[in-house]
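Following up on my earlier message about fe (ii) ion. Here are the inputs again, as you asked, copied directly from the submission form:
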Amino acid sequence: MTLCPELRRLAGEHARWLAKIADLGAADATRSAERLLDLWDAEILPHCRGEEDVLLPELARRVSEADAVIVFTLGDHVVLRRLARELRAAAGPARGAVAASLARKLEEHAAFEERTLFPALQETLGCARLAELAAELARRAGSAGPRRAAR
Ligand SMILES: [Fe+2]
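Thanks, got it. Here's what our run produced:
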């Protein structure tokens, strides 16, 4: 399925994070954990909030809120938040292991969204409605505030 422009934009954000995360491999564990948390605060969390605040409620107007796609997406977001919290709290060698778990979960989550959530959004809402929601999504993504405030 060829994704609508708005969904391609979201998939592009996934690709950008995954490329940045792949580059972190070269940095030392503490620095790489810090950079992953910076990316989480600045881009990943706002992206998840946009999905939760705009796209999933729109989907839930057309399908049940207990639909597996909605429940699975929210569950994944909780796991990502848990891992980000654990990474912030981790010290010493544990940081590297938690950072690796967060990176792995992000990769799995991006693949799930691109294979399952995005096609479901496109089939259910249509590209025209998704285009109408683009400005609202961008506002949500831009309203995360500075990094410290998002902690
Ligand atoms: Fe997501």
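One observation from looking it over: The pocket of fe (ii) ion is lined by residues 48, 51, 73, 77, 109, 113 (CB under 6 Å). Hope that helps, and feel free to reply on this thread.
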